[in-house]
């Protein structure tokens, strides 16, 4: 385990600390997997951190594609956010979602129709966009694809999801990447 994995975990801890105004070195990693360790303490699943044994009121998400890392976080303190809110971010390489059979197992019938309506050169980026939207949404929901297959999760018109086109002035499409961020439930107020 090295490179982008370690860098991502380091940056995620720094983001949690910054969101809540605490020192990163005081945080203890406590990821939660609904199947393995719903109470926390896992090394995988939904990211989270403890401060002095107490779970921090923050929702976090991390995604990597090659050496590129994308993070998202929500401060869940206060009345504006639902304390059970989740955030999900996903970053996909366009080249990784173009294999034979992908559309049949990963996309809903409506999503497949939307791809067929595009010119052939535009389909790979659109396919990666759909997949990044699905991954971001199931991360925000905290379920992954455990309860339903990706071909049952339609993301064409879901208001909880926003496409990420640019990060730090760099257009992700120029790097062969697609990304999305999702928040569930939607913020109020």
From TrEMBL:
Coiled-coil intervals, chain numbering: none
Domain 4'-phosphopantetheinyl transferase residue range list: 86-159
Keywords tagged on the record: Transferase
Alphabetical list of Gene3D superfamilies matching this protein: 4'-phosphopantetheinyl transferase domain
GO molecular function, one term: holo-[acyl-carrier-protein] synthase activity
Pfam families xref list: ACPS
Top-level taxon of origin: Bacteria
InterPro entries in UniProt: 4-PPantetheinyl_Trfase_dom, 4-PPantetheinyl_Trfase_dom_sf
Designated name of the protein: 4-phosphopantetheinyl transferase
């Amino acid at each position: 385990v090295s490179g982008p994995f370690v860098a991502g975990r380091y940056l995620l801890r720094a983001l949690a600390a910054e969101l809540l105004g605490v020192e990163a070195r005081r945080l203890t990693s406590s990821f939660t997997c609904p199947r393995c360790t719903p109470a926390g303490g896992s090394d995988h699943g939904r990211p989270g951190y403890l401060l002095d044994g107490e779970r921090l009121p923050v929702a976090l998400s991390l995604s990597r594609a090659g050496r590129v890392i994308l993070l998202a976080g929500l401060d869940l303190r206060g009345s504006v956010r639902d304390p059970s809110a989740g955030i999900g971010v996903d970053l996909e390489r366009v080249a990784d979602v173009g294999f034979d059979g992908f559309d049949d197992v990963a996309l809903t019938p409506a999503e497949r129709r939307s791809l067929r309506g595009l010119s052939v050169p535009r389909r790979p980026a659109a396919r990666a966009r759909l997949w990044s939207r699905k991954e971001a949404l199931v991360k925000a929901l905290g379920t992954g694809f455990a309860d339903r297959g990706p071909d049952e999760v339609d993301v064409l018109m879901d208001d909880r999801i926003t496409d990420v086109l640019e990060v730090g002035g760099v257009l992700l499409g120029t790097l062969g990447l697609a990304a999305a961020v999702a928040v569930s439930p939607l913020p109020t107020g």
